[in-house]
Specification:
Elements lengths: L1 H28 L9 H29 L12
Helix pairs in contact: 1-2
Amino acid sequence: MYRLIAFLVLLIPGILAVYGIKLMRDSFFGFVNPVFFNVIIQLFAGLIFVIIGIGFIGGFLLHRDRKKNKTKGRFKNEK
């Protein structure tokens, strides 16, 4: 059950990052999504979605590796 919850926690930011890549690709080719009224705003929204999605996944994996002591001392908390 815990693995399923962890999978769902990682699936949602992954979908957000993929949607951000789609928005950026569409803005490069000039297709404007009806939600956005300008190509530049769509590009920046896509960039923010990608940064948030990949950042969440990276933070989740770093937290998991710290907890299992697999970082070899590079990312130790100084507390």
